[in-house]
Amino acid sequence: MSRRITSRRLTTAIAALATVPLVAALAACASPASGGSDASGSDDVVRIGVVGKGDPQWAAFEEAAADEGITIEIVDFGDYAQPNPATTEGELDLNQFQHIVYLADYNVSAGEDLTPIGSTAIYPLGLYSTKYDSVDDIPDGETVAVPNDASNQARGLLVLQSAGLIELKSGGTIFSDLADVDEAKSKVKVTALEASLTPTSLPDVAAAIINNDFVGDAGLSFDDAIAQDDPEDPNALPYVNIFATRAEDKDNETYLKLVEIFQTDPEVQAGLLEASGDTAVAVTTPVADLEESLAKVEADTKAAKG
pTM above the 0.85 mark? Predict the structure, then answer.
């Protein structure tokens, strides 16, 4: 059952992560943005990039924002690689599709400074199969697919290790990759695919780690997961999903109002739960904690990349 994590719980849990190494979740091209709404409440359209515009929270969000006099346009992308560059280039005002770890990896790799201005939810990452009903049923030597982007690959490998399918040489970190898999001690082989392709790989593999945005593409429901991580584990906090914008816009009052609407509107929150099959855990982490967590993950990411 999903339940809201209070700011106090998150603040305490994030503080507990201070000594834990952190890491890097997550399409038609958008046309140039109109400039976004400013703090004075202009009529400009605020363009927000997402992956999965059809999810019910977005229609509810547009309506709730309109009730507050803010016009938003939800811009849909087919994969995770495009919303951050589009935000950096000013084609979007905000995006909401990723967690802190993914944003940190983008900022470090691209030399950019996108920043979180609000949290939305933590989503469990699941392992799915159309051939086997449980992890125990997967035979030795079978192949399991994981996403090939750094953040989701590491998290997926941690799920596989927790499920007893593989063993990671390092014990498992947010920087784990295929090279970290101890093949001699692992039950299955692991292959990496682009995140949007893991659902279509199911006929060819024993199981696959599938991001929430793509579960429906495989004709699956979230209840079909045969293994998943625990969103309430403190180690999952770097995977809090966020609204992100350019650093110079982080204090934009209209953008902050939109975050408040998302976090508090009952219809938006109901849509969020519906879209996730009631697996999302809504969170309202203080922005200062999000920024602190991002800075820590970025530092660890830079160190890992040498």
Answer: no
